[in-house]
Amino acid sequence: MKILKVFTTVLAFAVVLTCVCGCKGKKEKESKEDTTQMARGSYTAEKNVVTVVPLERTVFNKQLVCNGKLEAQSKVTVQFAAQGTIAQINVRDGQKVQKGQVMASLDKEQPRRQLEQARLAYDKAEMNLADRLLDYGYTLADTARIPADQKRVIYINSGFIDAQIALENAERTYKQCDLMAPFSGKVASLKGRVHEQSGQLCTLIDDSRYLVRFSVLETEYKFVRVGQQVLVSPFVDAEVVMKGTILSINPTVDQNGQIAVTAQVPGSDKLMDGMNVRITVENSVPDQLVVPKSAVVIRDNMEVLFRYKDGQAEWTYVNVLMSNTTQHVVEPNKDRGAEMSVGDLIITSGNLNLGDGAAVVIE
Question: Are 217 and 280 in a shared domain?
Answer without folding.
Answer: yes
